[in-house]
Amino acid sequence: MSIHTENVAKKVTLSTIAKMKGVEPITMVTAYDALFAKLFDGQVDMILVGDSLNMSFLGKEDTLSATMDQMIYHTQAVCNGASLPLIVLDMPFGSYINEETAIRNATRAYQETNAQAVKIEGGKERAYIVKALTQNSIAVLGHIGLMPQFLRSDGGYKIRGKDQADIDRLIEDAQALEAAGAFAIVVEGVKSEAAKAITEAVSIPTIGIGAGVDTDGQVLVWSDMFGFFEAFKPKFVKQYCNGATLIRESLSHYTQEVKNRQFPSEEFTY
Ligand code: KIV
User: Fold this and answer.
1) In the chain, how long is the greatest CA-to-CA distance?
2) In this predicted model, what pLDDT tens digit does every residue of 194-250 receive, in sequence order?
3) Catalytic residue flag (residue 193)
4) Catalytic residue among 188, 193, 230, 249
5) CB 221 less than 6 A from any atom of ligand 1
6) Does the structural domain 14-239 have CATH classification 3.20.20.60?
7) For the chain, first and last CA: distance in Å?
């Protein structure tokens, strides 16, 4: 049975998400603007304003140059478009390098947007930051496994959980985040058996991306899942539509009609 009545029609809160573990898979997508957020409103449990916007929205090669100002601007837009999902602002690289910086920036997230939580990347080495935030009444979504903000220091995007030693490290990371007060954890780019073990080792929900089917929920980046981001397609991305082709064909239709003076016809003329 669904936690929600009629297709996620109620406001999703932190306690809704907590209750979904082991009961009903959590759905999360990213959004960066009000238009798409409105389309997603009432259909997903959570929206992440991911720093992936630096790549798919701004056209940069990685997420590292995203700024707090950018994240706040896009989160304001998403909050203007969607009222029902739980909205999470992704803290950008460098915005949580120590407790004081993290509290200052996450306080901005709460004061300047209606996001209900922030997300930070890192395992047990960052648990003290998560604790500082949660002790200051800021809800935190953790993020472990493949962490895009570690791209340069790790020397690339690396799939995690390939052996028992790494699975044990990931479990320790997840447990440290839970102990620090995180309400849920994104588990990215890990072998499915590792994601299953992590999910079973904590009592807060795990939300997988490239982590198999055994997590408590799934997240995808909207521009990947709707086929708009064409630079590359990771194995875990399922394209639910081919947005790029749809737009190109529609645009071509429009330009032909303009060139042929078919548009605007009577119907579209005052
Ligand atoms: O920035 C982002 O979109 C993310 C997701 C990939 C989880 O962190």
Assistant:
1) 70
2) 999 999 999 999 999 999 999 999 999 999 999 998 888 899 999 999 999 999 999
3) no
4) 188
5) yes
6) yes
7) 52
